[in-house]
Amino acid sequence: MNTHLKTYHPYVSPFDPCKPMLEKKYSTPPHLYMGFQPPNLPQFSPFEALKAGTLWKDFYDPWYGPNEIAEGGIPS
Amino acid sequence: MWIYEKKLQYPVRVSTCNPMLAKFLIEQYGGADGELAAALRYLNQRYTIPDKVIGLLTDIGTEEFAHLEMIATMVYKLTKDATVEQMKAAGLDGHYADHDKALFYHNAAGIPFTTQYIQAKGDPIADLYEDIAAEEKARATYQWIINMSDDPDINDGLRFLREREIIHSQRFREAVEILKEEKGKKKIF
Amino acid sequence: MKQVPAEYYQLMEQLQAVDFVLVELTLYLDTHNDDLEAINQFNHYVKERKRIKKAFESQFGPLQQFGNSYSGHPWNWDDSPWPWQI
């Protein structure tokens, strides 16, 4: 199983004007690891698929903003 | 030809009258990696691409117009009943002076749409790599807009659109594989 | 002020869900033209869409025009609401 969020730690200078963000994140969605899609991958139901934005569970990788994550309950 | 259907691809909802969000969202209407640029890019490239992938470019290009309509719907709903004071407070005073509430194909910084956003090299691999890059850039743009938005309903629609970029990128990557394939060889999964 | 009933939204969402499956399968089949199971699934949902389209149009008027839907009298294609208004 691949993770779909990677992190890195930029160099922090004592002269940086803003409070340093020690960790930065970037998205690496599931299609980067898929290759040519094999047949018969597990599917969502039509309503679930519409909500997810894809028919195939393996491609589902929702993005939530900091406001939503701060409100709690949403997996990051 | 194209047939219009009186239906959005996804049920778009907006929770609060917040014209500020419209100012960001317009990036995906008339910006470099927006839905208009995407639709025009793919539908233009299909004339000079091998027949095996014309269908894919046609279908993704067509879906992009459905996404353009979703963005337009969000912008329309966010500004429809906004007062002039609200428009000014949202930084849309420049837009209002020129367009009132009319939608316009420009980016979030007000720069009008230009065909410079659309590449067409005529080389199938170069064009498909361009398309893959365009999908990833659009995906990133949706991330940044979701990060700035505090409207859960708008975010719900934007998450759908971001996920579509992932699927389109996947299909374009597969199109490259199809064009790379040696004649007569069977595909192995 | 005339507004559409709750049933409009329900039927519309049913159509959106089925049509979304068809969009996904279309793009998939564009790069997997030999997947018979996916083609069978596609054809199943084509039938399903026809059923929902008929139910929707009988209550709320044509979804497409240029002859892809029947018309009522008077001509009801240009009746409100449009998709971005609902």
From TrEMBL, chain A:
InterPro entries, A to Z? Spore_coat_CotJA
Q: Which organism is it from?
A: Neobacillus rhizophilus
| Pfam families the record matches | CotJA
Record's protein name = Spore coat associated protein CotJA
UniProtKB/TrEMBL annotation, chain B:
How cofactor binds (record note)?
Binds 2 manganese ions per subunit.
GO molecular function annotation: metal ion binding
Write down the required cofactor(s). Answer: Mn(2+); Ca(2+)
- Coiled-coil residues are none
What family, per the record?
Belongs to the manganese catalase family.
Q: By its UniProt entry, which InterPro entries does this protein fall under?
A: Ferritin-like (IPR012347), Ferritin-like_SF (IPR009078), Mn_catalase (IPR007760), Mn_catalase_dom (IPR039377)
- Which Gene3D superfamilies does the UniProt record give? 1.20.1260.10
Task: Tell me the residue numbers annotated for binding Ca(2+).
Answer: 59
- Natural source organism: Neobacillus rhizophilus
Q: Which protein are we looking at?
A: Manganese catalase family protein
Is Calcium set as a keyword in this record? Answer: yes
- Residues annotated as binding Mn(2+) are 35, 64, 67, 135, 168
Keywords attached to this entry: Calcium, Manganese, Metal-binding
TrEMBL record, chain C:
Keywords annotated in UniProt: Capsid protein, Virion
- Which InterPro entries does the UniProt record give? CotJB_dom, Spore_coat_assembly_CotJB
Residue intervals of the Protein CotJB domain: 10-85
Protein name according to UniProt? Spore coat protein CotJB
This chain's source organism reads: Neobacillus citreus
